[in-house]
Design a protein that fits this description.
The protein is α/β, with parallel strands linked by helices. Among the domains are: 152 residues, FAD/NAD(P)-binding domain (3-Layer(bba) Sandwich), CATH 3.50.50.60; 135 residues, FAD/NAD(P)-binding domain (3-Layer(bba) Sandwich), CATH 3.50.50. It has ten helices and 29 strands. The structure holds flavin-adenine dinucleotide (FAD).
Length: 415
């Protein structure tokens, strides 16, 4: 890799890793080399995945549809890092060896670092529910989103005469609610396209707890429930899935539901690479970090974003896995590396109360901003502005504007 005595390696170019790389580049003198590694050639804009899973662009050419959806969700690192002193390598990490200060990659290559930032994100957590891994479709990556979209489409193509089609989404958190809202719009369009009575297609959202969106305030939970009802989504709370046979979802209370497609949106766990790192304290598969985001015993190693475990003093539990938190931690890790190089003590992470913007089908979003809640088209505009602000934080203004307009246009085509 790049030959310098000051290698700072960032593993993972998601929300946390990319932010950290961009901030480090601004802070550090040229003798330091910032290396960003990701197994994909692109940065995934996850808040758009539910759109990618349900988009039906008006462009009739399959290949162009795919290209449009991919372009909106996946932003190439080459384009993002052009002209920057950040070296990007597309490589799959296989092992992290902290005592040797080394990273091993698929294919056998090795890299050594002076400073390391681990930002490899999370994976779907099926909680060992029998039949789920391999049976249900998760929504964590662009490929997952494209697979869900293809499966829903194929369901309509394959079963034109089936009396009923049932799609179940397991998990009534942010991902499940957002996906259910947009999926309802998609199904409405597919019914028209395939000349199918909408009454013969059902979309069910299943949640094991008594309410949807448990991290949010009751008023927002109530609004979300009403919106989903309005979109004809059948919401079933207190439904703990115990098993999936591929045809039936079996619940802990003995009930069952026949389904044609099951999508899993019920939980996450830290990237499994974390579990294999020896000498690091873990909490449910997440890497425990100190308030400086350093790993105890390894002062030049930081973990950030979904992979890191740090208690949120407001809730006395793991701080929520959000892009917002990952970015704040990316900035802080960059600051603390710069401070360490300057011989200064680190700044400590102080989680801010989380703010949420939850789009639920069409031009409608719920914004939970502490004391106020905004619902409807105004909420959708707030969500769109947040999207634009993010794009502008990682690319020049003119490119952010073009990307935002193209993406927004694609997103509203189901409305
Ligand atoms: C469908 C969906 C919608 C979401 N919507 C929102 C939202 O609206 N607002 C919000 O705040 N949060 C949202 N989130 C949560 C948010 O995406 C995560 O909290 C955030 O991405 C975490 O950032 P991160 O940097 O820790 O990990 P990620 O952004 O997931 O980045 C991890 C990176 O590591 C790379 N990687 C993984 N394994 C390897 C490997 N072995 N080798 C090399 N590279 C690897 C991946 O390719 C990826 O680029 C959503 C998540 C999902 C799944």
């Amino acid at each position: 890799m790049v030959g310098t005595t000051h290698n700072i390696i960032i593993l993972g170019g998601g929300f946390g890793g990319l932010r950290c790389a961009l901030d480090l580049e601004r802070r550090l003198p040229p003798e330091y080399s910032v290396i960003l590694i990701d197994k994909e050639a692109y940065h995934t804009f996850t808040p758009w995945l539910y759109e990618a899973a349900t988009a039906l662009p008006r462009n009739s050419n399959e290949r162009n549809q795919f290209y449009e959806i991919r372009k909106a969700t996946a932003i190439g690192f080459t384009e993002l890092l052009r002209g920057k002193r950040i070296h990007f390598f597309q490589k799959e990490v296989e092992g992290i060896h902290l005592t040797d200060r080394a990273i091993t990659f698929a294919g056998g290559s090795i890299a050594r670092y002076d400073y390391l930032v681990i930002a490899l994100g999370s994976v779907a957590n099926f909680y060992s529910t029998p039949g789920m891994a391999g049976g249900a479709y998760p929504l964590k990556t662009l490929n997952d989103a494209l697979t869900v979209r293809a499966q829903v489409y194929e369901l309509f193509e394959r079963t034109p005469r089936d009396p009923y089609l049932t799609i179940a989404i397991v998990g009534g958190g942010l991902n499940g609610v957002e996906l259910a809202g947009e999926c309802a719009r998609m199904l409405k369009h597919l019914c028209t396209q395939f000349r199918r009575d909408p009454k013969t297609v059902s979309l069910t959202l299943l949640e094991s707890r008594p309410t949807l969106l448990t991290d949010l305030r009751p008023r927002v939970q109530h609004e979300a429930m009403n919106r989903l009802k309005h979109l004809n989504v059948s919401v079933r709370t207190n439904q703990h899935v115990a098993n999936y046979t591929g045809q039936y979802l079996l619940f802990q209370d003995g009930q069952q539901l026949e389904v044609d497609l099951c999508i899993w949106a019920a939980g996450i766990k830290g990237n499994p690479l974390g579990e294999a790192i020896s000498g690091v304290q873990q909490e449910n598969g997440f890497l425990c970090v100190e308030p400086s985001l350093q790993i105890a015993g390894f002062p030049t190693v930081y973990a950030i974003g979904d992979m890191a475990y740090i208690e949120d003093p407001h809730k006395l539990m793991r701080a929520s896995a959000t892009a917002q938190k990952a970015m704040v931690q990316g900035t802080l890790a960059a600051e603390n590396i710069a401070r360490s190089l300057a011989g200064q003590p680190p700044t400590l992470f102080r989680p801010l109360p989380a703010r949420y913007a939850v789009p639920i089908g069409g031009k409608y979003a719920l914004v939970d901003a502490g004391i106020i809640t905004i619902a409807g088209i105004l909420g959708w505009w707030v969500k769109s502005i947040i999207h634009f602000k993010y794009l502008w934080s990682i690319m020049p203004l003119h490119k952010a504007m073009v990307h935002w307009v193209e993406t927004t246009w694609l997103g509203v085509q189901n409305d």
